[in-house]
Structure formats: C-alpha cells, structure tokens
Design a protein that fits this description.
single chain; mainly alpha
Length: 105
C-alpha cells in the first residue's frame, strides 16, 4: 500500500510538454562528419596530438581499434586523421607552438 501512495504522489510541477520532432535535415546534419577544416575538427586534432605528446603514448595509438572506438563514442562526427597526419602536421605544429612559448619566457 505504501508503494501505491508514493506512486500516486507526483510533483505538481511535472507537466507533460510536447516534444518536437527533429526535421530530416537536422537528423542528417547530426550524422554528417565534421569538415576537416572546421573549428571542431581542428580542436579535436589538437587535443589528440596533445594527448600523444603529453602522455608519451605511441603514435600508433591513433590506429588502434580501442582508441578509434573511444573517439567514435565521444564524438561520432569526428573523423580521426591518420597516423601520418599527426606525425607530419599536428605534432610538429604543437612542437613549434611550445617552442615559441618557451623562447618568449
């Protein structure tokens, strides 16, 4: 009986609000991958490069299934670039950025 009493007592502020259905375009936009030059993709590329350098993990980490799965779970719209991209572009860019900050101080 106590269960029934608690079940029947619902907060008076909880009102059912109609939900809006997303448009077809909105659904497809959520499934579309980021453009490689988009702000989001650039920030995520920098974050992966920082992770590789800061934690001193192998560059091959970006090719491992577990890491790829983690990235997909965290942000399905992000297309993880290749190991070569990180070796040739992102990590040298991070190196130059840190080098410039060190030289300034």
């Amino acid at each position: 009986m106590q269960y029934l009493q608690v079940k029947d007592q619902q907060p008076s502020s909880s009102k059912c609000q109609p939900s809006t259905q997303p448009t077809v375009n909105a659904v497809f936009d959520k499934a579309k991958k980021y453009d490689p030059t988009s702000k989001e993709a650039v920030e995520l590329n920098e974050a992966v490069a920082y992770f590789i350098c800061k934690d001193q993990v192998s560059i091959y980490t970006v090719e491992k299934d577990g890491f790829k799965s983690l990235i997909r779970k965290l942000n399905a719209r992000y297309q993880l670039p290749s190991r070569k991209y990180f070796m040739d572009i992102e990590i040298p860019k991070l190196y130059e950025s840190v080098k410039a900050k060190v030289q300034e101080s």
